[in-house]
Write a structure and sequence with these properties.
The chain has 202 residues and is an alpha+beta fold. The chain has a single domain, classed as Cyclic Phosphodiesterase, Chain: A (Alpha-Beta Complex), CATH 3.90.1140.10. 23% of the residues lie in helices and 33% in strands. The chain contains four helices and twelve strands. Strands 5-3-11-12 form a four-stranded antiparallel sheet. A hairpin with a 7-residue loop joins strand 7 and strand 8. The longest helix has 15 residues.
């Protein structure tokens, strides 16, 4: 599974190698296999002015940390390495918007319920809470963001897109690891880089 760039990683298998860049925003996520990102990318059309997420940036967010100073990085890595959860499989089912009522701001693809995903997410949040990272106020809902919409997005086009893709689904794919990802905002949008990888173990 790939997510964003993995060039000369600053973190490798949970080991801190350096932290010389300006403080980025960090989050934990699950990357997606190419066959799945290709299916998602084929839906990225049909809504004028929609800001579609690049295929390389598709991911399932587990926990968003925000800006993390260098002095906390080792603790974050150690907490992630200590999380124990077994591998599982995921599959996509359906699409939707946030918020549900117009005007929509986000288009997403949802995932079928998987108890082991919820268990991983809760254990990770619990480990991060011990470091002082508060849990997200929003209830965890497994999804992958496909596009962001401005007020100028035609409501009719959004309605038609939802109707066309409501039956979207994929075959199951294995999840054997989760990742720490950095996000830097550029004029061209967010750039992601995988900074650490943490295998799931039985």
């Amino acid at each position: 599974m790939a997510l964003g760039r993995t060039c000369a990683p600053l973190l490798e298998e949970g080991r801190a190698l350096a932290y010389t860049f300006r403080v980025p925003r960090l989050f934990f996520a699950i990357g997606l296999p190419l066959r799945v990102t290709e299916q998602l990318e084929r839906m990225a059309e049909g809504i004028p002015s929609a800001r579609w997420v690049p295929e390389d940036n598709y991911h399932l967010t587990l926990s968003f940390l925000g800006e993390v100073p260098a002095r906390q990085l080792r603790d974050v890595l150690d907490a992630a390495k200590a999380v124990r959860a077994e591998p599982f499989s995921l599959s996509f089912e359906g699409v939707g918007t946030f918020p549900k009522r117009p005007p929509a701001r986000v288009l997403w693809a949802g995932l079928r319920s998987e108890p082991l995903l919820g268990l991983l997410q809760r254990r990770l949040e619990r480990a991060l809470k011990e470091l002082g990272f508060g849990p997200d106020d929003r209830k965890f809902r497994a999804h992958v963001t496909l596009a962001r919409l401005g007020r100028e997005a035609p409501r009719g086009a959004v309605h038609d897109w939802l109707a066309e893709h409501i039956g979207f689904c994929t075959e199951p794919f294995p999840v054997t690891r989760f990742q720490l990802v950095s996000s830097v905002l550029t004029p061209g949008g967010s750039e992601y880089q995988v900074e650490g990888t943490f295998p799931l173990r039985r």
